[in-house]
Amino acid sequence: MRIPHLLLAACAFSCARPRQPAYGPYRNLDRGYLTEGKIRQPLHGRPKQITEYILSRPDTAGPQARHGFFVRFAYNWDGDMIYKHTYMNDTVVGSIDYRYDAGGIHDKSAVGNQTSILTSRRLPDGRFKVIDSSFKGILSSVIMSFSPDGSEQTEESYSDTSAQGRPVKTVHIYYDGGKMVRIESNSSDGYQEWHWIYSLWNSPDSILAYTGRPHALKLASRAIFYNNDHGDPVREITIYGADTMADRLNRYVYDRHGNWTQKIETTLKDKTGRFGNGEVAVWYHEIEY
Asked: How does pLDDT run across 140-169, given as a tens digit for each residue?
């Protein structure tokens, strides 16, 4: 699924199969998904590694044509993502590497010669304190907590590492089983909510974005997905207010586990300027189990 532009606020397998400590209920719920922003694509058959290529036409030139630009996700045996690497001409140009232990999650991001490091530790009261060193060297922190049943995650963000006083941003994430159903975000930039609507699948039928106040919400955008029998969208429509900004059709090829290995995406309409009307993009997933 492509991520609607307004929904980009919030965020995959190696041969080693260690059983690593879980990072609270949130990481357990994210296991077995290929995640991009607020889109969570269910995976089947315990993939170890997924390499994703996006081309402007079917790959008639053979696999070697794919190695200009691609992204590789790797997961451990538990289904936790352990890295996401971006390649250009078989050279890593961007990376996020994840490590898990009893203190939580730790990751290192790199783009060119710039590096950002995120580290976590468990506090005596059971919450997690996450320290983030941005690419600009600015330190910030987040206090994370989880409800006992794993149905709610709370994130309180601070502009320094002391994590004292009033947070600059508070986010609540709600789950129903393994499904993310709602995010509430409150900061100096205003209040926002995102709602996921489901029917038969673990993939959503729609994602609704709201602005305003908790009891006076205004619908800002909708992403609508018409899913097939695999739970993958064969049509995606993005609407801002009353204006349809994007409309795309998808066709898939699947492997024996039910994961798609090819997606042909045809843009019927795109007012964002990112794709032209009638443009075709071909996505390939090379999956190692």
From this structure: 999 999 888 878 999 999 999 999 999 999
Among the listed residues 35, 51, 47, the one whose alpha carbon sits nearest the alpha carbon of residue 1? 35
Exposure string for 221-251, b = 16+ CB within 10 A, e = fewer: bbbbbebbebbbbeebbbbbeeebbbbbebe
Cα 158 to the center of its chain, rounded Å: 23
Q: What is the pTM of this model?
A: 0.81
**DSSP state string for 40-57:** EEE--S--SEEEEEEESS
Domain annotation covers residue 114:
yes
When pLDDT is cut at 50, 70 and 90, the band that residue 57 belongs to is: low
Instruction: Evaluate whether residue 288 is within a structural domain.
Output: no
Give the total number of structural domains in the chain.
1
Domain that holds residue 163: 5-282
The answer to whether position 289 is within a domain reads no
Burial 17-55 (b: 16+ CB within 10 A, else e): eeebebbbbbbbbbebbbebebbbbbbeeebbbbbbbeb
